[in-house]
Design goal:
Oligomer: single chain
Number of helices: 14
Distance between the termini: 23 Å
CATH topology of the largest domain: Aspartate Aminotransferase, domain 2
Strand order of the largest sheet: 2-8-7-6-5-3-4
Strand content: 5-15%
Largest sheet: 7 strands, mixed
Radius of gyration: 21 Å
Structural class: alpha/beta
CATH class of the largest domain: Alpha Beta
Number of domains: 2
CATH architecture of the largest domain: 3-Layer(aba) Sandwich
Number of strands: 12
Order of helices and strands: EHHHEHEHEHEHEHEEHHEEHEHHEH
Shape: globular
Length: 368
């Protein structure tokens, strides 16, 4: 199979599996237990916490392990509190947008984006100058569909004396571009293991000391009281190892994917009616989202699947239903073109030969 959907999930690295196995069949102690087997498990979690913190230039005590990126985002949203006002970008992941808009105790203001998927500066200034009090701001570091990277550090710098909490969803950015929690100067950052060749079912929320978060799961003192429940030791160990490898191999992976992306985009530009979304923005090195006028994206996706080529029509958490991408709609893309969207997200094992095969299949199916 030609796998071009790494933004949905990555294949787990064999080196990660090797590190996890002992904690599935040998070191099975509860990390809250005081005897040796428990201490071994606790030590493994501590090591993983150091590895994840190192990936994003944070302190170990700032890492709260969760069941994944969705829980990390939801936990971050909890800090907004009751009867609060939240400013959320219009292109956030559904795991931020849906709970925010469905929370009747939260007043949500939307941040607009331009045609390249970047937050309009005037939109930020207008909302922050409103007479109401803002309690929470959430802007993703890199978009999961078109890959555009937001200038989060600039947003933080503009609001040095802020009274509100700034959260960034860095789930797609981690392991693809350098990230510094300190330099971004945000209060909360969400991460996910399975986007960086780690196991599914594990993520983290990075928490600035000045922020008080309210746990969603209570009844235990795990994760410094921020998340009750016995830790998934094997998954956390795998997340830690994946983070360590992502940091060590960041430049190599990024340059490899960028070279493939350039090859892919050069070939795409030869196809009539082709539009690459957010093309003029700084983007993740592995991500290309495009549309072809007159084609249906989901139909094309299924045709490619028959040729054993896996691509996406957008976010894996919001696929299906025949709806146009809300992200592209927010960027002003017309509905027919938005419905033609296909996302290619490359990984460390993809090759130029696979790019060539994909382009040929695309031309055959679209009769171009």
């Amino acid at each position: 199979m030609i796998y071009f959907d790494h933004n949905a999930t990555t294949p787990i690295d064999e080196r990660v599996v090797e590190c996890m196995l002992p904690y599935l069949n040998t070191f099975y102690g509860n990390p809250s237990s005081l005897y040796r087997a428990g201490r071994v498990a606790r030590s493994a979690i501590d090591t993983a916490r150091e590895q994840v913190a190192a990936l994003v230039d944070a302190s170990t005590e700032q890492i709260v392990f969760t069941s994944g990126g969705t829980e990390a985002n939801s936990l971050a949203l909890q800090t907004a509190g009751v009867n609060a006002s939240a400013v959320i970008s219009s292109i956030e992941h559904p795991s931020i947008l849906e709970p925010a808009t469905k929370n009747t105790a939260l007043k949500v203001f939307s941040l607009l984006v331009d045609q390249d998927g970047l937050i309009a500066t005037e939109s930020v200034e207008a909302l922050l100058c409103e007479p109401h009090s803002i309690d929470f701001v959430s802007v993703m570091l890199a978009n999961n569909e078109h890959g555009a990277i937001q200038n989060i550090a600039q947003l933080s710098a503009r609001n040095k004396n802020r009274q509100f909490v700034i959260h960034t969803d860095a789930i797609q950015a981690a392991g693809k571009i350098p990230i510094s929690f300190r330099q971004l100067d945000v209060d909360l950052m969400s991460l996910s293991s399975h986007k960086i060749y780690g196991p599914k079912g594990c993520g983290a929320l990075v928490v600035n000391k000045r922020v008080n978060i309210s746990p969603q799961l209570v009844g235990g003192g795990q994760e410094n009281g921020w998340r009750a429940g016995t830790e998934n030791v094997a998954a956390i160990v795998g997340f830690g190892k994946a983070a360590e490898l992502a940091k060590l191999e960041l430049e190599q992976r990024s340059s490899h994917c960028l070279a493939l992306r350039n090859t892919l985009e050069k070939a795409l530009h030869t196809i009539p009616g082709m539009v690459i979304f957010a093309e003029n923005a700084q983007r993740l090195p592995n991500t290309v989202q495009f549309g072809i006028k007159g084609l249906d994206g989901e139909m094309l996706l299924m045709q490619l699947d028959q040729k054993n080529i896996a691509v996406s029509s957008g976010s894996a958490c919001a696929s299906g239903g025949g709806k146009a991408s809300s992200v592209l709609t927010a960027m002003g893309v017309n509905r027919p073109l938005a419905k033609s969207a296909i996302r290619i997200s490359l990984g460390k094992s993809n090759t130029e030969q696979e790019i060539a095969e994909f382009i040929q299949a695309l031309k055959n199916f679209s009769h171009l």
